[in-house]
Each structure stands twice: as structure tokens, then as C-alpha cells.
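Bench notes, afternoon.
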Amino acid sequence: MASAIVAAALALSLVSACTSGDDAPAAGSPNAPSVTTAPVPDRLATFYDQKLSWKDCRDGFECTELTVPVDYDKPDGPTIGLSVIRLPAGKPKQRIGSLLINPGGPGASGVSYARSATSVISNATRRSYDVVGFDPRGVAASDPLDCLSDKQTDTMLGADPTPDTAAEVATTVQLAKLLGNGCEQADPALVGHVDTVSAARDMDVLRAALGDKRLSYLGKSYGTFLGASYADLFPQNIGRMVLDGAIDPSLTSEQIDLGQAKGFEQATRSFVADCVSSSGCPLGSTVDGGMRRLQGLLASLDEHPLPSGEADRPLTEGWGSLGIALAMYDPGFWPTLRQALDKAFGGDGSGLMRLADVYADRSARGTYDTNQNSVIYAVNCLDRPDDGGVAEVKSELSTFENAAPTWGRFLAWSALPCSFWPVKGSGKPHKITAAGSPPIVVVGTTRDPATPYPWAQGLAAQLADGHLITHKGDGHTAYMRGSRCVDKAVDGYLLRGTVPKDGLTC
């Protein structure tokens, strides 16, 4: 999770808070009146009791702002406003409650994700739930941490991701420090409080302000860690929770990075196998040969960047790696990657650069539409502090390279900024059982690059009432990504509380 590579998940892609009699939850729903929630500390009552003022914000959506404390240990101190959006249930008379959704990151906008509700939530579920999204603290429209200028972000993403000389390592360290110092200077009061536990506590305040007795939630990618953290804090406040593309919270930063290296290696082999199975593949005719050709291209970009169509931004190894990585998230990008690689082998890096720009959320104007490339580190470095530095990375390189010849070095170096982060976090890897919670559904895809399938197995096993859905396939996450079997199981759980059968494989 220390790697910025998780952040690409998002690139792929109302009524009163108090219910009336017509909108009352159905019997047995997660918001049935008999539900008892955790008591609210007196010092937080002002936040939990706040009334949201909803305003129309186009296309049937309503928007508001939720006020939360910057530091939950000092609720009388500074506050911030979180941007919140909802799409009211399509059929108010069968409304179950609110379904809070998060697309991952960390750093992805939940508000933007909710605006895509028609493509990320099934019609049946949208008819029965208000779909609610929010930008977590420090993200997008919620007091965003703007750590780097657009030019500095270009420099960071285009820099050598696999330094192998003293000068290159020194540049990598310099950029890591620049990022951390930029986040601290952007908002010294907030930078130490954008951790996942604080965001999970924000979710409980939002649950209460929405008028829901229990929180129903769909989290993808990093959103599964956010959801699991909520379950750890408030197991009795959970309604129906789905965690798709799961992160195992018991893993260390090194285990996360190594797992991703293996995941991207597996996904890349799957792409190459698909490519070489047809004529005209620019990677040749065998999987092993294709992998070596791809590795050779990245090595060549390290020494000799390709023209990208922009005079001042050639396709470096950094940009090329991001372009290839994007396509691993969704097989729908594989034909585009194949064409981009064909052009790159011919000396034209424009195709891979366009894919990299999608990954990084970079516009044609050269601006970044979100702060996701920076805030991912601001969150991760608090959740999993790391002070190993360059020496630790070097000691791990052979392990990473042996496990993932294509992606090992890239992922080994990706966590370095946390070694120089200006604010020390207190988060630690730990198992989450959420004892006392209702059933929690975990979804894992067998060849998921960013959140490898073993992570979903790990989370489902450690939860006291976890239930795993296995999706056999490629790409990142599974719900509403083309599997009718997964969609049916998730919808059955969200709408009727039907827990998937043990061992369900789609």
C-alpha cells in the first residue's frame, strides 16, 4: 500500500437525511429500528448531531458538507469540511438506506466516483439505496493537500523508478524529501491527520448525519482497508459491507510492495500470453520471450527516452512503466497497450505516454485534475511508517527482482518517500476481526495486479464473520466489471442480506 501504483483504480473508469414513513427500512434491513449502535462520546456529540444542508448539484445529485474535527483527540480544536454527494434511491418506497461508496487510492475522490453511480452500482441497488460518496480528508474537495506543482508532479512521475547509480539514488531521495516537505508546507495542521483511522471515524460521523443507524458500505481497492478499519472501530455500527479488491491489514509495508510486485508480474504475463496468442503481437510469439522484450523496452527507456509528442516530456522509464501498469488494471486496455507497444518499438512513445497520463489523471493541458499522486503517500506514510531508507531498499532488491523480474525494482523503490516523511505516523499492521459485526463480504480476483488474491483470502479469514467471493479472471476488482455471477451475489447481499455461499467462485 505504500506504492503509488494502487492509485490508478479510479482512472479506469436527494431526500432528507431523516426518513419519512414511506421511506422506512424494510424488515430485517441494516437500518431496522431495533438496531443498537455504539454510544457517542459526549465531546463528539456536536459533530454527530449536525444537520446536513443538501443542495441540488446537477443531474439528480445533491451535495453538502460534513464538519469533522481535524484531530479526534482534540475535538474542540480546528475543524475541516468534507465534500459529500448523494444520488437518492430511485424508488423511495423501497429505500433501504444509504450506501456509502469509496473507489480506493488512497486519494481517489468518492464524490467523482458517486457521480459515476450508473456504471459502478447496479440498477437494482440504486433503486433501493441512496448512493453516497465523500472525499476523504485531504483529498480532492475536502481541504486537499496540494503538495507539488504540476511541473514537480511531472518530474516525480517521470523520474527513474529503478535507480542504479549513486547519482540516481540521490535524485530519488531528493524527490522523496520534496514530496514530504511539500505536503507538510501545504497544511501543517492537517498533514498529520489524514490517516485511515481518522477517515474511518469521519465515516461514522457521516453515518449519523445521514440518519442511518448502521453503515452500509461498498469499498474497492484501498477502500477495503478504509472499510475494514471502520469495522475494526465500529463493528456494531455496520449494516451490509462489501470489500472488493481487498487489502490484508495485517501485512507490513514490505509485504504489500512485494505482493504488488508479484501481482503485476502475474498480470503482465497474462497480458503477454493474450498478445502472443494472436498474429502480429509486437512482443513475439512466446510468453517468456515477450516478457523479456517488455523488460528490454523499459531498460532501454532508462537510458534512451523516446519522443512522446511533447518536446519537454519524453517517454522515460517512469512514464513508460505507468503506461504499462494502467493496462494491467483492466483487460479492456490490452488492445490499446498492444498498439502503444508496437509504436514504442518503432521509436514513438506517444501511445504509452497517453496511457500514463490516464493513470496519473493528467490532462492534455499539462495539469493534474486531482491531488491523488501526492496524497496517496500522505495517507500511507501515516498508516505504515517506514524509516528503513535507502539501505533497506537495497537489501530487499534481490528478493523483489527474483519474485518479479519486470516489476520488482519498481515496487521496491516505491515506498522510499515514507522513510523521509516529515510527520511520523502511529499506524501498525494488525489483523482485523471486527468481532460482533454482521456478515462482511470480501471479493477477490485471482489475477488482480494491485490487490493480489491472497490478500482477499487473508482479510476474509481474519474477519470474525467474513465471507469470500472468488472471481477467476484478470483486472482490478470485480463488482460491476463484467461478471454477472459476482454482481448477482453482491446485489443479493446488499438488497436482501443474503450471504454468499461459502466457497462461491465466479
